[in-house]
Amino acid sequence: MSESGFDTIDGAKLLVDLQQVKAIVNSCSGCLEPAEIAHTVTVGLVERFGCVFARIWLMEPDRTALKLVASSGLYDRIDGFFARVPVGAFKVGKIAQNQIPFLSNQLAAETWVLDREWAISHGIRGFAGYPLIVNGDSIGVLAVFSQAEMLPEFLEILQSLCTATTIGLAAALRHQQEKLTWRSATAPAPAHSPLSEQIATILKPTQLALVGTERSLPLPLQHLMLTVTEVLSQLPCTHARLTYLHTEDRSQRLTLAATIASNLADSTISTAFDSIQSAAISVGSSLEIQPHTNSNLLRVLLTVVAAHRHSELRVNLRCRSSVLQIAFAQILELAGLSIATVIDRDLALITDDRSLAETAPYLLWIATDLQIPQQARAKIDLAITPSQLQSAVATVLRGEYWGISATPAPTAIQLSAREREILNLLTKGFRDRDIATQLIVSESTIKFHINNILTKLQAKTRLQALYQVMLKGLIY
Predict the structure, then answer these.
(1) pLDDT band at 213 (very low <50, low <70, confident <90, very high)
(2) Are residues 48 and 155 both part of a single domain?
């Protein structure tokens, strides 16, 4: 086995497995219910990887135990003995505590297994567990059981799946927490009360001034306003002002300006708002912390724009991750564009999915990797404003280009013909010596080319390199 441990990996099977992972992740796109995401993933593992059963536990709020939220295959109930597992107990609890993935093909022989006869009678031989980690903290554990032997490389496949799943679960859990926060924060005021009254209720005893005619805002913008207000309520906020300004095109600009006594370190105040910055950007808003004219004060300035819906123009939106899908859905809402429920070739398509890009005549490509498809007529990212997105869609539908030239720039990653040839042979399961024999060169020459490939792709292992070139469309 080579240092990277890849000589024994079937490259073709690897690509198939990664495509299966991608299909499972895509089926979760747009979902904001943690239990539903977990169920979709466990079903996918059973159906696509032949697992006997698969389970996902999520960390309870007090972080002392894991709660079983999804189980598919041989067992689909989420009650019973393992419905709640203390952190550090049994193998699942230890995986959550120590954050160390685990794989065994001798389940019945493991000392931690409570019922060895059960494993033997059901012919269950393999077990793999993987921690779900966000910012260094465990939020859950995924576990799969199989009758067939699992290769050690299967942990790499689980890593890809768990990384994507964790992003979706974290967004869904954060969404749930924000809903609870908003409900809690606005409990004293009726749900239908004006935004100014809800903000005033949260900020008490801070005095709030309202300037301009108040109108309703889209829900994402209301949520952002209330989230910022909740943070302000935890700081020495001296006073705040809510200003409505209506523009000629009937859009409305809403600014929440708050003054904070700077008896806290600037870094402490900035940290309090760090988690909100990305949410503000995703809905076309800005959140700034500025020095006040009085050196003892700081000014927090949140500006949101609710665009007037000019038309009922529809677009197709299909993102590989739920986080990206939600973010662009919000920007489209602010841009006055609606999302079609079914793919329509006559509509503009906004996506980062290369498989959909191949047949799209009006493609707006979300730049998540280094290569832009030849079909793309626009390149966009999360920094785009609602008005810019509206302009980009209109430009693409006219058959013109937006943000890129008519001849897309070549990919930033340039692999030589020989390097591509070696990569293609790796995907077919060839080992270094087999490739050397087929290309009539030395094995050291093959290793030299592979090292060059790893350097160009900034990959640490061959497994990572193959995963990257598949995602970037450098080989098919």
Answers:
(1) confident
(2) yes
Q: Write out 365-402 in H/E/C secondary structure.
A: EECCCCCCCCCEEEEECCCCCHHHHHHHHHHHHCCCCE
Residue where one domain finishes, among candidates 159, 179, 199: 179
Give the other-Cβ count within 10 Å of 411's Cβ: 14
Please choose, from the candidates 360, 363, 367, the residue with its C-alpha nearest in 3D space to the C-alpha of residue 384: 367
pTM as predicted: 0.44
Compute the distance between CA of residue 385 and CA of residue 168 in angstroms, rounded to an integer.
Answer: 24
Q: Please, which residues have CB within 8 angstroms of residue 272's CB and are 6 or more apart in sequence?
A: 231, 234, 235
Of 363, 397, 431, the domain-final residue: 397
Residue 335's Cβ-side half-sphere holds a number of Cα atoms within 13 Å equal to: 26
Residue 60 belongs to domain spanning: 31-179
Query: Do 378 and 440 lie in a common domain?
Result: no
pLDDT tens string 372-422:
888 899 999 877 888 888 889 989 988 889 988 765 444 456 778 888 888
Query: Beta-carbon neighbour count of residue 207 at 10 Å?
Result: 12
**Segments in 190-303 forming alpha helices (H):** 195-203, 219-233, 266-282
Shared domain for 50 and 163, answered yes or no, is: yes
